[in-house]
């Protein structure tokens, strides 16, 4: 074929791809969803899966949408849930801008579906449900390139449908804990109800998360007496496993501080008062609480906790008891996570004693410190010399937090489930020299 003929063929193909009609999907209750055609994929974006959690539905469990026969324009990502402000230094601005997703609003419970352009209800393709990470504080779906994943899958001859979901971050009262996890669960029910219309197979859904939401994926495996209710057949966890969350009472001080900051302390029903305060007032109050990049780092303020309902016990105890969904899973660690606020041996010791092991003897803390060398070249990411040594303690803290937050918990899960269900683990070294996070 001549160069001219090839150019003409490619131009014609590009024209046809760029001029395909907008994909329209009819749901089982007669509602229609109209999206975008982009290359070899269809994008249906910002589809509501629950009633807006605003007004009296603020801090309520997610409510399913009533049946509808309306038409919905699904051509743009929905807004993220209100983001907790981050504390960074100038040299982390690039990281800050890459994680924080705007715009944001309380009306955020939407999902996005990316499918091969030729997918039909008869295709019965596998489905991956992506839940973004962010320390249960930040993040959104628009920062992740679902079309690239679907296009790559198509090119490999293994087409999939990609679903990403927005969810709320955590603010707890005894009656309405785990809003984010409950949002995710309702989104999984939505997928079961409607994904066939987009070409997906409801029996081939994999829940997939990274960092905090790898932890969420793991918690979905140990909730509901280890019964996934057919919501997913497999799990893929990138930097996260069943996590020691503590009792819900341990989050009471953060709830009380939120009540105080919003001037709801004198209210007879503080939760109802929080539902009624202006959005900006509530957001300002949340920003007064400890954050992912603050001193206490991964000792998170708004993480899930044992409430006796969604989480009936500590996740590690549930794993020991065998209360884990009997589905195949993959788990591994992608990045190294530290904190900027600990720069001396004394601060490291204080951090361990106050935030990590408050009941440990000082001699035990000293022994622990000896396991993690202050020699920069021996810190995490390992085998990278002095790279990523933003502060004198940065790589030392990264090594410690990598073990306590990711590696130890991953190995604990694998040790207890090996031989009981199909499982895989991996080591990634591809991004070892990536600034700040490494690998």
Walkthrough of the structure:
This protein has two domains: 25-327, 3-Layer(aba) Sandwich (Rossmann fold), CATH 3.40.50; 346-439, no CATH class. The relative contact order is 0.10. The chain is built from twelve helices and twelve strands. The protein has helices at 3-18, 93-99, 146-155, 179-194, 212-222, 252-261, 270-276, 279-286, 315-320, 345-356, 362-371, 394-417, and strands at 24-26, 32-34, 36-38, 41-48, 71-73, 110-116, 125-131, 161-165, 200-210, 234-238, 329-333, 423-427. The strands form two sheets. A nine-stranded mixed β-sheet has the order 3-4-6-8-7-9-10-11-12. The radius of gyration is 23 Å and the shape is globular. The chain is α/β, with parallel strands linked by helices and 439 residues long. Mean pLDDT is 84; it is low at 93-98. Helix 5 links the parallel strand 9 (200-210) and strand 10 (234-238).
Attribute tags:
Type-B_Carboxylest/Lipase, alpha/beta, 2 domains, 439 residues, CarbesteraseB, 9-stranded mixed β-sheet, 31% helix, Rossmann fold, signal, 3-stranded mixed β-sheet, Carboxylesterase type B domain-containing protein, single chain, 12 helices
Summarize the structure.
This is Carboxylesterase type B domain-containing protein. This protein is of the alpha/beta class and 439 residues long. The protein has two domains: 25-327, 3-Layer(aba) Sandwich (Rossmann fold), CATH 3.40.50.1820; 346-439, no CATH class.
Reconstruct the topology from this structure:
Layout: H1 3-18, E1 24-26, E2 32-34, E3 36-38, E4 41-48, E5 71-73, H2 93-99, E6 110-116, E7 125-131, H3 146-155, E8 161-165, H4 179-194, E9 200-210, H5 212-222, E10 234-238, H6 252-261, H7 270-276, H8 279-286, H9 315-320, E11 329-333, H10 345-356, H11 362-371, H12 394-417, E12 423-427
Parallel strand pairs: 2-5, 7-8, 7-9, 9-10, 10-11, 11-12
Antiparallel strand pairs: 1-2, 3-4, 4-6, 6-8
Signal peptide: 1-18
Domain Carboxylesterase type B: 23-343
InterPro entries: AB_hydrolase_fold (IPR029058), CarbesteraseB (IPR002018), Carboxylesterase_B_CS (IPR019819), Type-B_Carboxylest/Lipase (IPR050309)
């Amino acid at each position: 074929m001549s160069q001219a003929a090839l150019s003409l063929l490619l131009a014609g193909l590009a024209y046809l791809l760029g001029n395909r009609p907008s994909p329209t999907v009819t749901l089982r209750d007669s509602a229609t969803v109209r999206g975008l055609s982009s290359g070899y994929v269809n994008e249906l974006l910002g589809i509501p899966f629950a009633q807006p959690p605003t007004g009296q539905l603020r801090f309520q469990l997610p409510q399913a949408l009533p049946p509808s026969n309306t038409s919905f324009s699904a051509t743009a990502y929905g807004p993220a849930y209100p983001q907790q402000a981050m504390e960074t230094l100038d040299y982390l601005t690039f990281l800050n801008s890459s994680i924080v997703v705007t715009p944001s609003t309380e009306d955020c419970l939407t999902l996005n579906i990316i499918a091969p352009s030729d997918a039909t209800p008869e295709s019965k393709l596998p489905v991956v449900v992506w839940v973004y990470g962010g320390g249960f504080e930040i993040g959104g779906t628009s920062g992740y390139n679902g079309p690239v994943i679907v296009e790559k899958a198509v090119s490999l001859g293994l087409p999939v449908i990609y679903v990403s979901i927005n969810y709320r971050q955590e603010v707890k009262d005894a009656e309405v804990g785990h809003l984010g996890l409950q949002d995710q669960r309702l989104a999984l029910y939505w997928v079961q109800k409607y994904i066939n219309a987009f070409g997906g197979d409801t029996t081939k859904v994999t829940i997939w998360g990274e960092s905090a939401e790898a932890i969420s994926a793991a918690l979905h495996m140990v909730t509901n007496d280890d019964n996934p209710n057919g919501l997913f057949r497999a799990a893929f966890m990138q930097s996260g496993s069943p996590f020691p969350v503590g009792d819900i009472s341990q989050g009471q001080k953060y709830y009380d501080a939120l009540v105080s900051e919003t001037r709801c302390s004198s209210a007879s029903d503080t939760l109802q008062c929080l539902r009624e305060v202006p959005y900006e007032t509530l957001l300002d109050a949340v920003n007064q609480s400890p954050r992912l990049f603050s001193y206490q780092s991964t000792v998170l303020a708004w993480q899930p906790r044992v409430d006796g309902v969604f989480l009936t016990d500590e996740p590690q105890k549930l794993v020991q008891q065998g209360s884990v969904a009997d589905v195949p899973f993959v788990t591994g660690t992608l990045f190294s996570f530290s904190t900027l606020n600990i720069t001396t041996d004394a601060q490291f010791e204080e951090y361990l004693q106050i935030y990590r092991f408050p009941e440990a003897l000082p001699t035990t803390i000293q022994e622990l410190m000896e396991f993690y060398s202050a020699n920069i070249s021996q810190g995490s990411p390992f085998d990278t010399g002095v790279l990523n040594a933003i502060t004198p303690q940065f790589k030392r803290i990264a090594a410690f937090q990598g073990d306590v937050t990711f590696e130890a918990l991953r190995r604990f899960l694998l040790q207890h489930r090996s031989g009981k269900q199909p499982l895989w683990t991996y080591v990634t070294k591809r991004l070892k020299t990536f600034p700040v996070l490494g690998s």
